[in-house]
Design a protein that fits this description.
With about 550 residues, the chain is α/β, with parallel strands linked by helices. The protein is built from ten helices and 33 strands. Strand 15 and strand 16 form a beta hairpin. The chain is globular. The two termini are about 45 Å apart. One of its GO terms (molecular function) is UDP-N-acetylglucosamine diphosphorylase activity.
Length: about 550
């Protein structure tokens, strides 16, 4: 499984979800565990890998009962040259995944819709695990919020298309029915179908037809009863967007051990085209204003806040970073710049992709999503200071405060209890309790100076977070540990490891700095000595640090 930024892509997806749940807890004081359904595949032992990962990580502190894993079937492949089945041996066809459109019928057949209802759910958000920025800022919350509030049946999260991207487009489609009525709805046209609909193929131009349409990102909101009705229909509607895709080579080994790479394809269906079932009908043709009345909708945001995928490994000599882990890392770093540059923190902008290919990123800044996940929330936890080119900043906890910190080098803050601590439930499973015994860190008027990452080391793999360092300042918080540094210069290589139940204070001293380690008072072991208080103020969320 792809190790992205030090963890698997699935771990990153669950982190995003837990960050939204933590935000809900901080606003309303209520624990919420969202049920998660995952469609896996038997290809490359994906289903087994996912299951073992969930078991190894204790089902992410959510309990096994909050997960449903259901396996996508494989379909036989045909030769593009003569239409014959591709076989590895007699009566054994070459089989490949048949597209994500099977998710709806498969979910119905496996009882996933009923399982969601049993958990009190009316709607769901859908995303692909390879899209590492899908939960950035407002994207998923706005998508689900609009769908629920306005009782829509399906929504798309969309953005501007990338030059030359192999991705579909979202369109408003108009049809004249046989009864003379007109139907309207939002749907998706896959890139493999552009010729069929008369959409020019080839590179995009600034005034090209394709560039006028927003990109389909496969981030959806669905109303569960509406989708279930289609999925249970037992006809072609339950497998939407059926296409024969012959644009990718198929590699297989025959009966005699010979390896073949041939032009071929298999029938695929696309999950987003279930939208074709939710059109609205009018007696006469509509010329304007039809969008507001539709059962489908689109939310639109800047591309790097909506989609950036880690689907394919970049070849060493390749300059294009599209859909590679390298390209998505740069988008994460650009998002980090957008967050922190609004906090009166001086830091250089991330250059274009060409500069990355030659020398790597300008810096590494990785912020745990629970610091927000809304940027408005994150920005209130940071204020003032600077981050120099070539620096590294990793913050892996939610209860964090940065005030006037000057960083030139590497600063890594990690906590065992990022958002809370687990307790054992009645079934003997560890369950995350948000806000309970969190790790906490305050940095005020601090200067961090060290040699940081060895940017000249040729084997650095930045998107894996596999890098060579000369020096770093590391803060490691065990359990409910707390760390506070105030008016101090931390120069050189240092590791501050704080035991569970303790608070460490670092201040300036004769030898550079002094360390004071004290046990937490018994009445503060669960709540900590301080926390961020969240309060809804109209359309905004205001934060205030509260000392206990």
């Amino acid at each position: 499984m792809l190790p992205y930024c030090g963890r698997t892509l699935l771990e990153g997806l669950i982190r995003d979800l837990q960050a939204r749940e933590f935000l809900h807890f901080k606003l309303y004081g209520k624990q919420c565990i969202t049920p998660v359904a995952i469609m896996t595949s038997s290809a490359k032992n994906n289903h087994e890998h996912i299951t073992l990962l969930c078991e190894r990580l204790g089902w992410f502190g959510r309990g096994q009962s909050s997960f449903q894993l259901f396996e996508q079937p494989l379909v036989p492949a045909v030769s593009a040259e003569d239409g014959k089945w591709l076989v590895t041996q007699p009566f054994t066809p070459v089989c490949k995944p048949g597209g994500h459109g099977v998710i709806w019928k498969l979910a119905y057949d496996k009882g996933v819709f009923k399982w969601f209802y049993d958990h009190g759910r009316k709607g769901a958000t859908v995303r692909q695990v390879s899209n590492v920025v899908a939960a950035t800022d407002l994207t998923l919350l706005a998508l689900a919020g609009i769908g629920l509030r306005h009782r829509k049946k399906l929504g798309f999260a969309s953005c501007k298309r990338n030059l030359g991207a192999t991705e579909g487009i979202n369109v408003l489609i108009e049809r004249k029915n046989v009864d003379g009525k007109w139907s309207y709805g939002l749907t998706c046209i896959e890139y493999t179908e552009f010729d069929k609909f008369g959409i020019p193929s080839g590179p995009l131009s600034s005034n090209g037809l394709k560039s006028e349409f927003p990109a389909n990102t496969n981030i959806l909101y669905v109303d569960l009863p509406s989708v279930e009705k289609v999925a249970s229909s037992n006809n072609e509607k339950s497998l939407p967007g059926m296409v024969l895709n012959t644009k990718k080579p198929i590699v297989y080994v025959d009966l005699f051990g010979n390896c073949h790479s041939v032009s071929g394809g298999r029938l695929e269906c696309t999950m987003q085209n279930i939208a074709d079932n939710f059109s609205n009908t009018h007696l006469s043709r509509c010329y304007q204003g039809v969008e507001e009345e539709l059962d489908t909708y689109i939310v639109y945001n800047e591309r790097r806040r909506v989609t950036s995928s880690a689907k394919r490994k970049r070849r060493h000599s390749e300059s294009s970073l599209h859909q590679t882990p390298d390209g998505s890392l740069l988008d994460i770093l650009r998002n980090s710049y957008d967050i922190l540059s609004h906090c009166e923190i001086e830091l250089p902008e991330i250059g274009n992709n060409d500069k990355y290919v030659g020398s790597g990123p300008s810096y590494l800044i990785l912020l745990h999503p629970a610091l927000g996940p809304l940027w408005e929330v994150t920005r209130q936890k940071f204020h003032g200071g600077s981050i120099s080119k070539g620096s590294e900043l990793q913050i892996e906890l939610a209860e964090f405060l940065w005030r006037n910190v000057q960083l030139d080098g590497s600063l890594i803050v990690v906590a065992d209890n990022v958002m809370g601590s687990t307790t054992i439930d009645d079934n003997g499973e560890p369950i995350m309790q948000y806000g309970y015994r969190c790790g906490r860190c305050k940095l005020q008027d601090v200067t961090v100076l060290n040699r940081g990452i060895d940017w000249s080391f040729r084997d650095n793999i930045y998107w894996k977070l596999d890098v060579q360092r000369f020096e770093a300042v590391k803060v490691i918080l065990h359990g409910n540990a707390e760390f506070e540094a105030n008016k101090v210069v931390l120069q050189g290589n240092h590791t501050f490891e704080v035991p569970d139940g303790c608070r460490m204070k670092v201040t300036s001293g004769d030898s550079g700095f002094e360390i004071q380690l004290d046990p937490l008072e018994p009445n503060l072991l669960d709540s900590g000595t301080w926390h961020w208080n969240y309060e809804v103020n109209g359309a905004h969320i205001l934060l205030e640090p509260v000392e206990l």
